[in-house]
Write a structure and sequence with these properties.
This protein is α/β, with parallel strands linked by helices. It is built from twelve helices and five strands. The chain folds into two domains: about 200 residues, Rossmann fold, CATH 3.40.50.1110; about 35 residues. It is globular and about 60 Å long. It starts with a helix and ends with a helix.
């Protein structure tokens, strides 16, 4: 009798676990992204965002691809300008973003406010500028996704430590205003702790390399409400996007002249296209 009772209890527990798992899976699938097909998204930022929109593997383009493969085709308003600080972004917000009537705007601002030193923006003024940007967006009915600022030459640098206060402000502001937050600074720190110099996040300690762009895109897509299955689908699509991982090669002058000669013989194509083709074939062979 005790054995039967035990078996009955085990079955009940198994059914309960199965039902809970099914409910969890249903909830994940039922979660709807904030952004919808046909929406406009503005990407406001500095050189990291400018490169994110110009480079094939930049975080802006990865976001667009990630949304597209999940059935969400959006129009991008690329508004990243190199060297910009919070005061610059505030000054051009109306003309370059709000006037174009986006539904959403990502805000990536803070690196130059700190990195530029005496030409930067002190924390108090930064708070005023960011608050004004959010106020203007709110009046225009533009939903803002706030990005924390990525590390400047590693987490232990003086600039990164100074940046902590700026990011703490962004986190508190996102919470206060119930705005989506992409905490790329926290992601940056976590990856640096785990992988160090082999993280391949930055080209120069500040600007993104492909893994840094990938980190930022994942964080923003998560803030926009994509679930794990949708993020996985986005990542799978990124893997085969052409030209996303630029790699430099150093040749001698003799080697370069030989490449020019071969490129001319091969339908007269530009030498750099010819070299890229050679390396692509080699990498494809090595990847099998």
């Amino acid at each position: 009798m005790n054995i039967l009772k035990s078996m009955g209890l085990a079955k009940v527990l198994a059914l309960a676990v199965s039902a809970a798992a099914g409910l969890y899976a249903w909830n994940c699938q039922a979660q709807e992204p904030l952004v919808k097909n046909g929406d406009k998204i503005a990407f406001l930022g500095d050189s990291i965002t400018q490169q994110g929109g110009n480079n094939p593997g930049g975080y802006v383009n990865l976001i667009l691809k990630g949304l597209e493969v999940n059935g969400i085709k959006v129009e991008a308003i690329k508004a990243g300008i190199s060297g910009n600080k919070s005061n610059d972004m505030l000054a051009r917000l109306d003309g370059q973003v709000i006037s174009k009537k986006p539904n959403f705007m990502t805000l990536s601002c803070g690196v130059n406010d700190v990195w530029h030193g005496d030409r930067g923006v002190p924390l108090d003024q930064y708070k005023t500028n960011i608050t004004a940007i959010l106020d203007k967006a709110q009046v225009a009915n533009v939903k803002v996704v706030i990005l924390t600022s990525t590390l400047i030459n590693g987490m232990n640098s003086d600039n990164s430590k100074k940046l902590d206060a700026y990011n703490d402000f962004l986190r508190s502001l996102a919470k206060e205003r119930n705005l989506p937050l992409a905490d790329v600074n926290a992601d940056d720190k976590e990856i640096e702790k785990a992988k160090g110099a082999k993280s391949y996040l930055k080209t120069d300690g500040v600007h993104m390399y492909i893994k840094g762009d990938e980190m930022m895109a994942k964080s923003v897509l998560g803030a926009l409400g994509l679930n794990q299955a949708q993020l996985n689908k986005a990542h799978e699509a990124w893997l085969d996007m052409p030209g996303t991982c630029p790699v430099q090669v150093k040749l001698t002058l003799r080697q370069f002249d030989k490449m020019v000669e071969k490129a001319e013989a091969d339908k007269g194509q530009p030498v750099f296209n010819y070299i890229n083709g050679l390396f692509s074939k080699m990498i494809e062979s090595e990847s099998k």
